[in-house]
Structures are given as structure tokens and as C-alpha cells.
DNA sequence: AAGCCGGGGAC
DNA sequence: GTCCCAGGCTT
């Protein structure tokens, strides 16, 4: 048996039972694929189930409001996925009359669908002969064929996509793709791969050369920026002043609190006198509580976040500010760290 | 081509 | 701490 046939045999004997594998409905598969971008199966699974229940068809999804989608997406990260899904659902409703496209060429044009996702949806829904290349496939191919080209260079991407396409079983694209990814996720793992029980170890360049830890090769480490967020809790117990974020920075269109960003974390008494703060509240801030600083890690940023409670109220409400009834707080999509800051105060 | 976009789990 | 996850969009 050749390499890919071995992996298919391994897959049939070892595959997990995952809900999106029991359908060929392009809409349902699309839901799963977007949710699973840069996301582990175990983390995405409960979100998939909630989305399928709330939006059984793409028409149901298209009728949703963005706040509602982001709320359902809360905690999953990379929120542009949720925002793009709504746009795509609305476009499919209008342009395709609610019938989700199945062809790669149609799918690749949609917001939030790139090469990987178009290949995944087209092959899983209609068995179109398109090879998926995700993180798992990069790793499996780099190791088995001993490819030291960086998987995140533009030439490397072409090399791996070309190799994956050549290897594709064009009669059984769906099964082939599932097998490649599941093998990478379950056995040919980033750390401690199961080489001892691997069905293709005798042909694996990395195994034979003791190079599994060196492959795949990936370029550069991301630069991490440090930021200091000072949030203000303005509440009378019945309502709380919330801010809807813009669409440029992190957590686009989600909700947090009024805040100032500082170049470093200041003691409360210095924060209270900051010109930016006194301008906002009319005079020196009266701080009644100050949380300990929470360190919150994102891919490109290390956030240091604190929240101060104040008896002051702002002079004027900025455009994106509103006093929200505490009873309605649970409807707002909150970034993880905001949820942590206020969950105990308002019983969220 | 490089930078940006979350949160969590394994080690 | 570091790495990476069924990646894609913007500049």
C-alpha cells in the first residue's frame, strides 16, 4: 500500500466520531470549518452545537444581528470569523437564494473562506477533488517527505499545496482529506508523535533521520506588544456604563467599559489625576475600588488590565457609550478579560 | 511579505 | 514560558 492509502486505512480504524463528519450539507460543514480555524476540536465542538441549534439553516443565520452572533461566539477568539460569517450568510441568502455553494470556485470568493476552507467544504460536501492543506497536513508532509522549506513562506505554501494536490486521491477526496488531517491531529502530533505505532514510519524521512522535532520548519516568532488598559466601572447597581468597541483594534464591535490606555501601569492616585481622566470625568477621579492587575495574553499583545470603581460620572457620554441595564448585560458580547472583571459583580 | 486577529491546552 | 491549534484578512 502507498502512503496515502495507509493513512486512509489508519483513519478508518482510528477516527473520532465528530458531528460534522455525519453530513454532506455544505452549510453545516461551513459552520464547522470556520469555527475550527486555528481552534482545537475540543474547544470548538460546543460552539458548533450551539450554532447548529440556533441557526439550523443559512437563512436563519442570515436573519441574525451581529451582536447576537458575537455573543454566541464569545470566548472563542478571532471574532472576525463571526462577523464574516454573518456577511457571508447574508450574501448566500441573497445571491444563492439560501442554497450554500459547494464548488471551490464559488466558495473561495466568500468572506472568511480561504484556500483551506474552500477545499474542505467542497471536498466534504460534494467530493470535489481539492486537497486541504492545514497545520496538520503541513506537519505530516514535511515529516514524511523530509521537506525543510518553511511552511509559512510563500514558496513553501506553494510547495506543500502542490505536493498535497499530487497526492490527493481524486476519487475519494473527502475521505483522503479527513484521513490526512486526523492522522496529523491524533498521531503525527507536534510534540511526542506516535512514531512507534505509526503505519508509515518505515517510509518517513523524519522518523528515519530522527528529525521529527525539527519538522516542520516555521519562520520567525511574532513580536508581542505590551499594553496597559485602565477600565472605569461606573454603576449605580441598576445600570452600568458600557462601551461598544470600534472595528480597528482587538475585539472589534464587542463591548467593554470606558477606559484609558497608558504607557505603563500607574498607581491609582496617579491615574486619578491623569489629564485624559480628569477631562473625561470633570475633576479628579474618586476611586473607591481598584482590582489587582490582570495579565491577559493574546497572540500579538500582552495586556495588563485593571478596573477602578468610581463614584464620578463622565461629563459627556461618548458616542459608543451607553448605560446598560444590569439585567441586559448577559446579552452583550464581552471579551474574555472583561467577562472576568465583571462576572462576579453582576452575577454573569 | 509582513502584520494583525483570541483563547486555550499540552509540555 | 513556548508552541500550536481543521486560517484568513489587511496593508
Automatic annotation (TrEMBL):
Family matches, as InterPro entries: A/G_AdeGlyc_MutY, DNA_glycosylase, Endouclease-III_FeS-bd_BS, HhH-GPD_domain, HhH_base_excis_C, HhH_motif, MIG/MutY, MutY_C
Cofactor binding summary note: Binds 1 [4Fe-4S] cluster.
CDD domains with a match to the protein in the record: ENDO3c (cd00056), NUDIX_DNA_Glycosylase_C-MutY (cd03431)
Matching Gene3D superfamilies: Helix-hairpin-Helix base-excision DNA repair enzymes (C-terminal), Hypothetical protein, domain 2, Nucleoside Triphosphate Pyrophosphohydrolase
Record GO biological process: base-excision repair; mismatch repair
Source taxon at top rank: Bacteria
Enzyme class label: hydrolase
SMART domains: ENDO3c (SM00478)
Signal peptide boundaries: none
Catalytic activity: Hydrolyzes free adenine bases from 7,8-dihydro-8-oxoguanine:adenine mismatched double-stranded DNA, leaving an apurinic site
GO molecular function: 4 iron, 4 sulfur cluster binding; 8-oxo-7,8-dihydroguanine DNA N-glycosylase activity; adenine/guanine mispair binding; metal ion binding; oxidized purine DNA binding; purine-specific mismatch base pair DNA N-glycosylase activity
Obligatory cofactor(s): [4Fe-4S] cluster
Keywords of the record: 4Fe-4S, DNA damage, DNA repair, Glycosidase, Hydrolase, Iron, Iron-sulfur, Metal-binding
Family affiliation: Belongs to the Nth/MutY family.
NCBIfam families: mutY
Its biological purpose: Adenine glycosylase active on G-A mispairs. MutY also corrects error-prone DNA synthesis past GO lesions which are due to the oxidatively damaged form of guanine: 7,8-dihydro-8-oxoguanine (8-oxo-dGTP).
Name recorded for this polypeptide: Adenine DNA glycosylase
Organism: Mucilaginibacter ginsenosidivorax
Taxonomic classification: Bacteria, Pseudomonadati, Bacteroidota, Sphingobacteriia, Sphingobacteriales
Designated gene of the protein: mutY
